């Protein structure tokens, strides 16, 4: 009996920071919005996470898909967030607002995994979203320690057998193709380990969710949806483009998608904040475009000093234009580090490197 008590002591579940701080965090966001305080978080970031929580509460009350007080099957909810709307910040806030027990975040690439690793402050707390925005300053030196949850970016198959922290970020490809974690393999032990892995989490956040129709992504979501004792599961999709192209037609990524959207951030909501709309006629010289971008970046730096380095993205209509526009922008600014093309006719590894360099602030402009 004594031995059983000792085992129970070491395996007893402790609350996550998300569960502990969730209710208070929601109240803080509501007060910030009531008093029009938008110098820390953008209004649409707060609205997106609070509306998602409200939607979940409504579903729980309706009991439309709940049996015995526990949701057995849950369809994903969807937040539509365009480029420049602070999607990483929304992802960081969601586990707190939803009072998650244990969170799994699914990404399409190593690059995005690293970006979220920084936003959550997994390795460097001073790079976390809460620190960069200034939110944690009110808590003094202990502020970050009191709110940040421990986390890991899953890199190796053997890690799924470890006792994992309450935040896990993983590239979806780890569970597909020839990966050792593939759910398509006939290795029963490995499949059992993977199923046990998914059974730990109550919250799944899918970043860049327009990849979802791909087989690996569908398999992961289906695996996560399986009932787990004591867990009420919740799945949140986030993407700028919740459609896929099928036979030249755009189709929604979810069934009854219009009913699953908890919040949609529109492009006009972010214009004047993180995004500037510029309409250039064809005859406009690229040199003028470069000067306009430079001026806007300086203007934004004064307006939003909390962001270490302001950057811009130039969207072009054709892939083959990207390299040319990037070269012309650099020529106009007499620099090789002003702009970089993140598409074009080059190897995938080179594109990844360029994107990584842009994320690290080595370029001011990305042409996409």
Automatic annotation (TrEMBL):
SUPFAM superfamilies in the cross-refs: P-loop containing nucleoside triphosphate hydrolases (SSF52540)
Record domain Helicase ATP-binding: where: 68-260
UniProt superkingdom: Eukaryota
PROSITE patterns (alphabetical): HELICASE_ATP_BIND_1
Coiled coil feature spans: none
SMART domains: DEXDc (SM00487)
InterPro entries referenced in this protein's UniProt entry, alphabetically: Helicase/UvrB_N, Helicase_ATP-bd, Helicase_Restrict-Modif_Enz, P-loop_NTPase
Pfam families: ResIII (PF04851)
Protein name stated in the entry: Helicase ATP-binding domain-containing protein
């Amino acid at each position: 009996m004594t031995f059983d008590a000792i085992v129970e002591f070491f395996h007893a579940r402790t609350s996550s920071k998300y569960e502990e701080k969730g209710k208070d965090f929601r109240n803080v966001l509501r007060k910030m919005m009531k008093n029009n305080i938008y110098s820390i978080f953008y209004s649409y970031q707060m609205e997106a996470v609070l509306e998602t929580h409200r939607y979940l509460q409504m579903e729980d009350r309706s009991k439309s898909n709940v049996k015995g007080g526990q949701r057995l099957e849950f369809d994903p909810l969807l937040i539509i967030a365009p480029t420049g709307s602070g999607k990483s910040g929304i992802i960081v806030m969601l586990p707190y607002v939803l009072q998650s027990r244990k969170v799994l975040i699914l990404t399409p690439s190593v690059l995005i995994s690293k970006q979220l690793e920084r936003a959550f402050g997994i390795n460097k707390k001073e790079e976390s979203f809460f620190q960069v925005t200034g939110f944690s300053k009110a808590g003094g030196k202990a502020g970050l320690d009191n709110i940040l949850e421990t986390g890991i970016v899953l890199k190796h198959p053997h890690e799924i057998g470890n006792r994992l922290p309450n935040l896990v970020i993983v590239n979806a490809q780890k569970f597909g193709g020839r990966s050792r974690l593939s759910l398509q393999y006939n290795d029963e032990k490995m499949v059992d380990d993977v199923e046990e892995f998914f059974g730990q989490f109550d919250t799944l956040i899918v970043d860049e969710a327009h990849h979802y129709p791909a087989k690996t992504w569908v398999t992961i979501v289906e695996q996560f949806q399986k009932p787990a004792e004591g867990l009420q599961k919740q799945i949140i999709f986030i993407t700028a483009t919740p459609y896929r192209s099928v036979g030249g037609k755009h189709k929604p990524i979810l069934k009854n998608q219009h009913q699953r959207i908890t919040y949609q951030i529109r492009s006009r909501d972010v214009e004047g904040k993180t995004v500037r709309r510029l309409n250039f006629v064809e005859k406009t010289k690229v040199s003028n475009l470069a000067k306009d971008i430079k001026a806007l970046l300086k203007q934004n730096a004064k307006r939003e000093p909390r962001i270490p380095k302001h950057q811009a993205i130039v969207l072009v209509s054709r892939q083959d234009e990207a390299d040319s526009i990037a070269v012309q922008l650099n020529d106009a600014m007499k620099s090789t580090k002003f702009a970089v093309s993140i598409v074009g006719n080059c190897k995938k590894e080179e594109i990844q490197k360029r994107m990584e360099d842009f994320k690290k602030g080595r370029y001011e402009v990305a042409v996409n």
